[in-house]
Amino acid sequence: MIATSLLILVTASCKKETFITGAEARLNTSVDSLHFDTVFTTTGSVTHSFRIFNDNDQKLRLSSVKLNGGSASSFKMNVDGIAGTEVNNIELDANDSVHVFVTVKIDPNTANLPFVIQDSITIQYNGNTKQVQLEAWGQNANFLRSRIITANETWNSTKPYVILGGLLIDTNIVLTIEKGTRVYLHADAPFVVDGTLAINGEKYDSTRVVFRGDRLDEPYRDYPAGWPGIFFRGSSKDNVLNYTIIKNAYQGLVADKPSVNANPKLTLNECIIDNCYDAGILGLHTYIKAQNCLISNCGKNVILAQGGQYDFNHCTIAAYSNAFLLHKEPVLLVTNFIKQNNVLLTADIVALFRNCIFWGDNGTVDDEVITSKQGTSTLFNVNFQNCLWKVKNNPADIASSNIIANENPQFDSVNNQLRIYNFRLRDESPAKNKGVTTGVAVDLDGNPRAIGIPDLGCYEKQ
Fold first, then answer.
1. Could you tell me if residue 430 is inside a domain?
2. I need a surface site. Which of 53, 84, 205, 269 has the fewest CB within 10 A?
3. Per-residue pLDDT tens for 2-22?
4. Are residues 223 and 353 in the same domain?
């Protein structure tokens, strides 16, 4: 009996050690194709991979795994630790698998629009073949590494701009960015303005100016904190951003110190600041004017601290908890102070919010608008006119009129799971026809405002 059992064990063991050589051998791959989103020429890409599975109870020999484009291909292949255009005689144990890693690097060329690079990998075994398709969207770009702009300069939409290591606009220098320009920033690339940034975006999607991180592959393309943000420092002046989108930064826009002249340090017209990990807008003792702006789904949407001068008109400031950010901070914080090294610094503040919506949901915040005053020696003039807000406790030390409190603004559609956020208003929205006329003729879409009483927020119901 014991001898019989040993014979069965030895026979089974030998069977698993033998190779299956017939055409009936079963082989599968984890994917039929690998797709690489936009890859900027010369920068390479992240690595994608797939697995080759031996679905047999015996060992299987792959006669070859071949990158069909060979050494001329834009793709590079590594099979189970072996790099090359073709790897031969790969042994797979029964019911085992092997990893194939693929990267792509696209050489510069004269094409300015996205182009498709394709190749394929052929797997040969027992006279059979199986293919995995490779596809990458490539785009030529202007590459700027640790760049200081020391003379007036204009960027246009002919090719996108990819910034590595950061960019600085020097004092008294103007960088003008024309409509439709795309700016992609690496994780180590703050955009610092000591001079002036002038952005001339227009209302159509293709003509807005976009700032975002340079990781365009899933899932990183939607992660907040993909790049540091845009910083307007002490000497910066006369910055005007028209129809600009800033997304996925650590801090979207930071303006520090008072304006050096009578104009706002930062003017925002029809701008979107979205999905920033910390603050969407951070103003520190500065002067900001904003109209028709959407500041959405940031860790701290808007912080205006240590006083300053602020004018927000027809803005929607809203946040929802989602897979990336838990909504746990008010969408608006206004103070006349900050603490630095345990020293309280205060300054006068004059702030006016008209026709705005302040809303948050699916989070832990009772009061979406918080104002805080320290000391008695500074001016604290904060006024809300014709606004809708969600609060449990009314903001302190302010003036207000025609406020709609704690009524859902009825945004068009919000789906956290699918990351759909449409902050236009439904027909039944309580924010319709509740504004005060301020001379703003259009909304964030560039559509006309009502001739009579306008809607609250950045979008006018059409």
1. no
2. 205
3. 444 444 444 444 444 699 999
4. yes
